[in-house]
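User: Can you predict the 3D structure for this chain?
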Amino acid sequence: DEQGHTHHIMRTPLGLVAAPVLPACSRGLSVRLCSPSSAAGPAGGWEEYHVPVLRDELVRWLVTDPAGTYADLTLGGGGHSAALLDVLAPAGGRLVCADRDGDAIRQARRRLGTHVESGAATLLQTSFGRFPAALSRAGVGVGAGGAPGEGARLSGVLLDLGVSSHQIDEASRGFSMRFEGPLDMRMDQASGELTAATILNEWSTAEIADVLWRHGEERLSRPLSRALVAARPLRSTAQLASVVKAAQPGAPKELTKRAARVFQALRIEVNAEMDELEAILAAAASLVRPGGRLAVMSYHSLEDRRVKRLLRSGATGGDSPPRDFYGNSLAPWTPLTRQPVFASDAEIEANPRARSVRLRVGERSSHPAPEAAAG
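Assistant: Here is the predicted structure, written as structure tokens:
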């Protein structure tokens, strides 16, 4: 990602959080856990599939009731899910693990198999937008009409946005410019026909420029789109990166960042990531019980902006919460992280992909979700 921070984690008042202490074996920066969830995985260990960012901090922020039911909607390599299950499973808690990527589900079934068999973990292949329905089919009820109450069953929800290390490093997925691969970029390769190749080779110059501007915040979106159209047919990630870097002059570092923004924009469009994020953020207040928490880890400003607004106002498009006659906030969320939590210098050194992460956490208030309030 093009943005990075090196702030120390202690900037955030973690001491204010009431949460269980992790087992001794899962503290620190090591990504290996001591529970059945850390059983032998792919060659080199599960950490090579995906290194979970802010793992221990996330568990401390999210878990307030170890016997509750939680959801990890971005299962990936299962690192965060494994850490959560280390705390939840011994106390009788449950974790619903979801991902739209079938490969992630297959890998997690191997890693978390013991917890799946015991009933502590449930695996669901679904997108953000379809998660509430999938959750209901899995037997976990949600509040009707957005109103918190007996039906809103989840004690917490985790969203670790972006792309997993495995997806980036798998050349055939087409997510990275570091590897020669097809211009695919689909999170779920079993469904959906739209690929990056379709956009680059079939869409108009104006449509491509719009994608680069909206999803990559690329100021050179128009000249870049013209260069991409002129270079048709585009077949590989290496060819795409080469065309982008040659389109406009710049220092090597800036050219790399520009190419990264183009790859990000195409990936977001292919997977409708902003629409999916908007859908789950709007539904979250109906999924989480009062006192439960929503923890979101974002990696670029498009995601973080929406999360920050949701936790402040209850909607991704506004900055001010609804208020009653006396001026009291009626927002469905209370922000717990006034400033985002960043990875420590030590974690960034061990895992450079942690550089861009921002963790924001909100607690569900007793106020109804905006849809219910409007009704």
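Residues 348 and 354 are 5 Å apart (CA to CA). Strands lie at 69-72, 94-99, 121-125, 154-160, 288-298, 333-335, 358-364.
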